[in-house]
Automatic annotation (TrEMBL):
This is Uncharacterized LabA/DUF88 family protein. It comes from the Bacteria. GO terms for molecular function: RNA nuclease activity. InterPro entries: NYN.
Length: 192
């Protein structure tokens, strides 16, 4: 079983759902391995976590030295587990930066490619996608339609939930405030 995290989407929705507007911008992070293990335990059908795949942007150190350092520290922490597979792609900085924030580029494609590749190669029998980004629906549909891999999604209670048009599928693991608190990462990676 593989759990796929659209990390910035997961982090952003956690902030919107469970934190107030005055919360520090760095707050709302989670431990992906703990969240993946929670999802596996919650499943109706038994299974083993094969990998937790985390996808996120990485700030450019020459533009955001502190943010890049914190991102690298967090990545190093996650990398301690052999179950974590981390994919980071450099953020894209628009001409109006710093007035216009940088954006992730290629994250959705990386998730889609990996999920489909792993399902086709029979590396996973279940794929759980933790994201509220509708752009990832075609990847879920491709895995559902062209492999034997079962697909499920996860979302924070109060966030958007991915579903196939006109249905209540795939199954959604809703995670609430207490779940967020149980997997929350309070580490200040910028201060270390």
């Amino acid at each position: 079983m593989g759990v796929f995290f659209d990390y910035q989407n997961v982090h952003g929705w956690a902030r919107r759902c469970f934190l107030d507007n005055a919360a520090d911008p760095a707050d709302g992070h989670i431990h992906p391995l703990a969240a993946a293990q929670l999802l596996v335990r919650r499943r109706k059908f038994a299974g083993a976590l094969e990998r937790a795949c985390v996808y996120r942007g990485r700030p450019n150190p020459s533009k955001q030295e502190g943010a890049a350092r914190a991102n690298d520290r967090q990545a190093s922490e996650w990398g301690r587990s052999p179950l974590i597979q981390l994919t980071r792609r450099n953020l894209a900085y628009p001409r109006g930066w710093p007035g216009i924030p940088p954006a992730e580029k290629g994250i959705d494609v990386a998730i889609a490619v990996d999920m489909l590749r792993m399902a086709i190669a029979d590396e996973i029998d279940v794929a759980i996608l933790f994201s509220s980004d509708n752009d990832l629906l075609p990847a879920l549909e491709a895995v559902r339609d062209h492999t034997d891999c079962h697909v499920e999604v996860a979302a924070w209670t109060g966030s958007n939930r991915l579903r196939f048009d006109g249905t209540q599928t795939p199954y959604c693991h809703y995670l609430g405030q207490s779940d967020f608190e149980s997997v929350r990462d309070h580490t200040d990676y910028a201060a270390r």
